[in-house]
Amino acid sequence: MPIETIMTQVAVIQATIAGVKIAYDNPPHNLNVFPCFVNFMGPAEVNYTPSRRETKHTIKMQLYVSKQILPEAEKVLRPFIDLTLDKFGQNLQLNASCAYSMVRSYEPGVLTYGNTQYIGISFDLLAVEHESISFNV
């Protein structure tokens, strides 16, 4: 499936995480509703065999929890780590949009969007896509 489909399905899954108000597959102009996920394409690695192309996409999943950088905001943030890991662990093929996926890392802390700082979590999701190909020689 194309990366557009994968990105859409990532947002669909995020929207089902308890407590998440909205998930964007494309970055919005500004953030007004919290908690929310905003997704960005990261680097990709492409490998070829004689009959297949394998693309390993990195998707930067940014969860913005609060506009206020306070200890209380961090307490709200903590449960979203396991909620997100569990939800993506239950749907490794991202609604049949890729061969497999996995959250490779996460980092809680201060995230910047536009010129504003938020408390949140940055997750790196690996989504692997296989496509059959034939080479014309």
Integer average pLDDT? 93
Number of helices: 3
| CATH fold field value | Alpha-Beta Plaits
Structural class: alpha+beta
CATH superfamily: Phage minor tail protein U
Rg over C-alpha atoms, rounded to the nearest angstrom: 16 Å
What's the end-to-end separation, in Å? 25 Å
Structural features, described:
With 137 residues, the chain is of the alpha+beta class. It has one domain: Phage minor tail protein U (Alpha-Beta Plaits, 2-Layer Sandwich). It contains three helices and five strands; from the N terminus they run αβββααββ. It has helices at residues 3-14, 71-77, 79-89, and strands spanning 22-24, 36-48, 52-66, 100-113, 116-132. Strands 1-2-3-5-4 form a five-stranded mixed sheet. A hairpin with a 3-residue loop joins strand 2 and strand 3. The two termini are 25 Å apart. The model has no long low-confidence stretch (mean pLDDT 93).
Task: Record keyword descriptors for this entry.
Alpha-Beta Plaits; alpha+beta; elongated
Task: Summarize the structure in short.
By secondary structure, the protein is α+β, with helices and mostly antiparallel strands. 22% of the residues lie in helices and 45% in strands.
Question: Topology, please?
Answer:
Blueprint: H1 3-14, E1 22-24, E2 36-48, E3 52-66, H2 71-77, H3 79-89, E4 100-113, E5 116-132
Parallel strand pairs: 1-2
Antiparallel strand pairs: 2-3, 3-5, 4-5
